[in-house]
Amino acid sequence: MDKMKTAEAIRSGQTVLGIEFGSTRIKAVLVDTENAPIVSGGHDWENHYEDNIWTYSMEEVWAGLKDCYGQLKEDVKSRYDVSLTTVGSIGFSGMMHGYLPFDENGEQLAPFRTWRNTITGQASEQLSEVFRFHIPQRWSIAHLYQAVLNGEEHVKDVRFLTTLAGYIHWKLTGEKVIGIGEAAGMFPIDSDAKDFDAGMLEQFDELVADRGFSWKIRELLPKVLVAGEQAGTLTEEGSRLLDPSGELSAGIPLCPPEGDAGTGMAATNSVAVRTGNVSAGTSVFAMAVLEKALSRPYEEIDMVTTPTGEPVAMVHCNNCTSDLNAWVNLFKECLEAFGTKVDMNTLFGTLYNKALEGDPDCGGLLAYNYFSGEHITGFEEGRPLFVRRPDSKFQLSNFMRVHLFTSLGALKTGMDILTKEEHVQLDKMLGHGGLFKTKGVGQRVMAASIDTPVFVMETAGEGGAWGMALLASYMKNKEGDETLAEYLGQKVFHGEEGESISPDAKDTAGFEEFMVRYKAGLPIERAAVESLR
């Protein structure tokens, strides 16, 4: 669209707004009538480790939201000389799942327990056994049941349980609802009923019956909605939370709030059967939309859904680029000590590309990127670790390569189950997130790790906020019974698949050699956790 048409679309409220609360950045994206991003805003933030809990305060949530939206608003004004007073629809997304409990007065009962916590092992194990369905540690129901097992006083007073995305949506609209993809990380979903699994809800109530709680589990959970349904409108109070200036109008329709898994699927056009996507940033997760159910539950595989409720197998790992980023920042500090200023994009690009010069197996080097615990490999706590033998080839190219490899080590453990044991067939795997910003490098490493061609679109860097905007756009603009897959394929991506990199045989063999060391060295990592408590 040209500038004048875009300005008119903004003025008349034809644009759509998507906002996502990621682990390290809150991002807002405004899209035009052709679903192309036109302006954005952002706010950097970090979780805190307090009282053995990874958390964010709700004060940080609202301050970050206002700053992020305020930047977007300023961007609109400076680019198009228009004041942003309304939009056609809004969607909110957040880092997946976790635990946010509230009492009957809407007061928060416990600090936000994020996806990063690995403190619900007992609950995860017991619920998985009762349900005969794998319940990951980060899921909301695992956090609730662990609080029950811990005898935490607040549990008896819980009247509403939600996720970060659900919380923000509730405060802006008054509606206690959740998108089905995010709901699937709160409690298991029945994909046929498009709702929480009724049988498992009853099983949970029976499990805690002797505790004497006045509530039933369904009463605590938000209402499940699928993509395309309207999920309320922005209230007067909600509009002030988003835009304290009072310029933003109330009454704007909102789509169901989703998690970053669902927005990743939308942003990569991977909501149809036999498609998959991988999101690689602070954490990393890969998703495959299934043709048929897996043969049995696996601890390493989470069963979730697309934003429209189709079953999805997910491999989710808590750690990806945090340790890698820390090393890059160390190199930046070194350069600055010599008086050299370097652009961070240039530094990342240079160091990432250096990794392509390394030996296929990283020259015998070994690293673990565990900033936090990693459930797939059985760690409740993390200790970033770099190890080498005296005869390892210790050079910059191998050093960077091993840190790229280890960022996907835990992910490969789970993906091997899907591809080698369950023989899940994927027509394409689409990548998005920070790991793919340096053209060709993260993509090549990912292709080697899963031995599958990886596609990356030009829009991959837009991430979940754009994906959330697409879900809001679908709700506003879909025609009749048009499916989400049809809408994305025909009206957003227009058949575009992006650039593909196929796995290189030497890279793939080298990754397999690295994984032998990775698995054999896990006792070293366990010793590091114990010795550095």
Tell me about this structure.
- This protein has 533 residues and is of the alpha/beta class.
- The protein is 39% helix and 17% strand.
- The protein has 19 helices and 22 strands.
- The strands form seven sheets. A seven-stranded mixed beta sheet has the order 16-17-15-14-20-21-22, sandwiched between helices.
- Strand 10 and strand 11 (195-196) form a beta hairpin.
- The radius of gyration is 23 Å and the shape is globular.
- This is FGGY-family carbohydrate kinase.
- InterPro entries: ATPase_NBD, FGGY_C, FGGY_Carb_Kinase, FGGY_N.
- Residues 277-474 form the Carbohydrate kinase FGGY C-terminal domain.
- One of its GO terms (biological process) is carbohydrate metabolic process.
- Keywords: Kinase, Transferase.
Strand tally, please? 22
Rg result: 23 Å
Residue runs with pLDDT of under 50 for 5 or more positions: none
What is the topology, as strand order, of the major beta sheet?
16-17-15-14-20-21-22
What is the overall number of helices?
19
Overall spatial form: globular
Major beta sheet summary: 7 strands, mixed
The averaged pLDDT comes out at: 94
What proportion strand? 15-25%
Structural class: alpha/beta
Distance between the termini: 56 Å
Helix percentage: 25-40%
What's this entry about, in short?
The chain is of the alpha/beta class.
List the helices and strands and how they pair.
Elements: H1 3-11, E1 16-21, E2 25-31, E3 37-44, E4 48-50, E5 53-55, H2 58-80, E6 89-94, E7 100-102, H3 121-131, H4 140-150, E8 160-162, H5 164-173, E9 177-179, H6 180-183, E10 189-190, E11 195-196, H7 198-207, H8 217-220, E12 223-225, H9 236-242, E13 258-259, H10 260-267, E14 275-280, E15 284-289, E16 302-305, E17 311-317, H11 322-337, H12 344-355, E18 366-368, E19 385-387, H13 396-406, H14 409-421, E20 428-432, H15 441-450, E21 454-456, H16 463-477, H17 484-492, E22 499-501, H18 505-520, H19 522-531
Parallel strand pairs: 1-6, 6-13, 9-12, 14-20, 20-21
Antiparallel strand pairs: 1-2, 2-3, 4-5, 7-8, 10-11, 14-15, 15-17, 16-17, 18-19, 21-22
